[in-house]
Amino acid sequence: MYIMTSIVDEVPSVDNSGILLSVIAILISIISLVLESYTNKKNKMLDVEAEIIKTVYDKYLITNIPNARREIKHTGEKVISTDNFIQVLNDLRLDSLFYEYKDINFYNFIKNETQKLENYVIDNEIMDNSSYLKYEKKIAASIEAIYNEIINKQLGKRNYKLRLVNFFKENYIVIFLIIIIIILLVYISTLFM
Predict the structure, then answer these.
(1) Run of H or E residues at 73
(2) Residue 126 pairs with which residues in a beta bridge?
């Protein structure tokens, strides 16, 4: 009987704050696992999308657009050899059709920017030397905008507002759990004061 009493006396008493802290630690562990899983999933999706963009657009960025642009010449009175450049812009639009269903904003940007550039090239075939300098700058600026959009897409950069909204839509449970944990921590801190 004495042995039994001494064993029971050695068992530490557990108070509510210890249990609550243990529960909070478990919740934090679960949340960190969920966030890590989410981050890994997002990174894999970005890698797949980057590979798709590389496959579709590398030939345009590295070869087709620069070569077709280089063919455009000015005779002093008019611009010649624009047919290949216009065809490359059409091909770029066609090869971007996948994004009409995957990312409509990206698709619309590529479609609209290439169409504007194509119209500009077609509408400005007759010009003098001074106008040709403006023409070259306008074409260079449009090509740069197209390149930037494609590269940003490949790097996973998107509209930050849309990114924030999507984050909250996809993670509302985790955000809810974090809010509960914060409320519990505030409650616990009031118990010890």
Answers:
(1) strand 73-74
(2) 78
